[in-house]
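FAQ

Q: What does a record look like?
A: Structure on top, sequence underneath. For example:
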């Protein structure tokens, strides 16, 4: 849980460190593992409802017999159910390595095990958005386009298939309904005097990726652009001058106690917090009407995967409707959510449970980098709020 909770928060900082290290000691990658020949009998279910290509992939994966995953806490995004569903569907063993690893740890595990075909060598990775291009540049991943490729938004996938978004969170307002009589519906509402001393971010915008993305979202709501976050800085300056911005790093406990009754955070954090509170206090999760912004994780296959066909089958499973719904059941938005909602394949209870993310936008890595630089340099002078963890 630790790895996923903070992966997006530190991803850009880790990328900078890793790029520095790689420049000092680059390792030339070996050739990607060759796909194993299909020698086992096809799965029973492969006969009627699979394409010949899918049936052949199932057969080849079963010949390999196993898959190694890394950094997948079973209680994060319902990954436990996804892993168990994959095993039951295809009869493969799944080695679950270091569930609490971070994105940098995952790339290092590929490097360290590039000549290892044992169960410690990861076949697949699930990393923060910025780590997908980094892994590609360092020759650590190999391309594979899943059969549902066309329904993955273009701005969250590598055009050559080296990495692609898997699920995302949307910035939301987590609201303690016992303290806040009328929940804000949009970013502009937070400037109202009735929210004085009530609004808090989930990190320090000078260092926290989640908080940086919050400033980008505010800019998007003001200017309909993510290329220049100056309107976002101006927005938070107004929020601070109005006395509405609380200068502490909010968490679910502070929301529940009413100390920061409006928290800007990922919607899955808010929804999970509402479950934990069990109505005491009642928690509302509000996706703002404008400035809808998402933060993404991505999937990729190791260039040295010992079980490349099992890895491809795992990707096919995760990007099928079945796999996407498993993530959705864990409050994470699957990357194909818009397509699935449009086709009406999301069960009614799930559709009612998660906020509609129609119109959500995904900032590019270049936009995030530019925003980080501008916010870090100007937050103190423009906004003047020293956001810190509570002692």
């Amino acid at each position: 849980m630790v790895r996923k909770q903070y992966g997006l928060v530190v991803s850009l900082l880790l990328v900078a460190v890793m790029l520095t290290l790689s420049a000092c000691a680059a390792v030339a990658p070996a050739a990607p593992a060759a796909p194993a020949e299909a020698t086992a009998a096809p799965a029973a279910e492969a006969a009627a409802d699979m394409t010949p290509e899918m049936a052949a992939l199932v057969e080849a994966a079963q010949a390999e017999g196993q898959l190694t995953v890394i950094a997948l806490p079973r209680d994060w995004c319902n990954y436990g159910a996804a892993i168990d569903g994959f095993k039951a569907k295809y009869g493969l063993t799944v080695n679950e390595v270091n569930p609490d690893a971070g994105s940098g740890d995952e790339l290092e595990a590929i490097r360290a095990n590039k000549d290892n075909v044992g169960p410690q060598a990861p076949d697949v990775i699930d990393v923060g958005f910025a780590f997908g291009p980094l892994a590609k540049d360092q020759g650590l991943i190999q391309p594979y386009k899943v059969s549902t490729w066309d329904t993955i938004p273009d701005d969250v996938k590598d055009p050559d298939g080296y990495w692609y978004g898997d699920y995302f969170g949307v910035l939301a307002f987590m609201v303690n309904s016992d303290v806040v009589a009328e929940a804000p519906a949009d970013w502009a509402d937070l400037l109202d005097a009735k929210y004085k001393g009530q609004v808090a971010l989930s990190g320090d915008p000078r260092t926290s990726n989640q908080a940086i993305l919050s400033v980008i979202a505010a800019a998007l709501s003001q200017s309909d652009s993510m290329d220049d976050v100056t309107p976002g800085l101006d927005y938070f300056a107004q929020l601070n001058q109005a006395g509405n911005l609380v200068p502490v790093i909010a968490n679910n406990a502070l929301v529940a106690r009413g100390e920061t009754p409006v928290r800007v955070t990922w919607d899955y954090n808010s929804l999970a917090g509402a479950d934990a509170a069990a109505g005491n206090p009642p928690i509302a999760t509000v996706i703002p009407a404008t400035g809808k912004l998402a933060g993404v994780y991505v999937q990729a296959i190791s260039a040295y995967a010992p079980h490349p066909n099992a890895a491809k089958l795992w990707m096919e499973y995760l990007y099928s409707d079945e796999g996407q719904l498993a993530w959705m059941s864990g409050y994470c938005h699957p990357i194909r959510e818009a397509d699935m909602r449009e086709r009406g394949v999301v069960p009614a209870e799930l559709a009612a449970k998660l906020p509609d993310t129609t119109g959500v936008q995904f900032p590019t890595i270049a936009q995030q980098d530019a925003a980080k630089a501008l916010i870090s340099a100007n937050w103190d002078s423009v906004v003047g709020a020293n956001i810190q963890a509570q002692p």
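Q: Is there anything notable about this one?
A: The beta strands are 66-70, 93-97, 124-128, 141-142, 164-176, 199-200, 262-266, 283-286, 294-302, 333-334.
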